[in-house]
């Protein structure tokens, strides 16, 4: 983690308040959690998760994530993983973003798409994404895009959050664009800027342009879509005219 301390473990007894997985050999998270549970069977592992909200709990290395996830899952036993806590606002945004970033890079270790989430409606796309692509799967979770968009407006994590969003936009612009329209109001200035940045090039160059715009226009967020897409610039008005002409041509054919 560069995780050198975990306050919640202190109550488990001496010798378990230090967790430095940067050491060689690495910690075995499953064994660690099993020992902690034996020493303190009443330890609340949901509280342990809450204590990840700490400046010293930065998950930087793949092995750190493996150790952490193994420990949490073993400690929780049959209790559900607290995925909702991942999306709440942490006091230490750096710790939160480091954990999310590590999860996105290592979906074989932990994939947020395996847990309850609001799904991006990719079934509406003409060319559907590869469902077996685990790197993509996480970006099909609306909560992820919503959280990163919020972080992109916060000074201390802005650069890193925008970098993650840009990386996804380069690979899966159709999925991210759909996600941006699934996020409930209010429509922030930053979200509007992202849409303005993506849309012109997307409409001109992407095979899913028509199906994405059609899905947005006919979705529950139609009013918001009209506000964003028709009320921003003259360019969007021109692009939408082209979109409707293409759609009419396809339907008449």
TrEMBL record:
Keyword Nucleotide-binding assigned to the entry: answer is: no
Query: A Gene Ontology MF term for this entry?
Result: molecular adaptor activity
Q: Show the stretches that span the lipid bilayer.
A: 223-250
Record's GO cellular component, any one? CCR4-NOT core complex
Q: Which UniProt keywords apply?
A: Membrane, Transmembrane, Transmembrane helix
InterPro entries (alphabetical):
Not1 (IPR040398)
**One biological process term in Gene Ontology:** nuclear-transcribed mRNA catabolic process, deadenylation-dependent decay
**Tagged with keyword Nucleotide-binding:** no
Q: Which domain of life is it from?
A: Eukaryota
UniProt protein name = Uncharacterized protein
Organism in which the protein naturally occurs: Cylicostephanus goldi
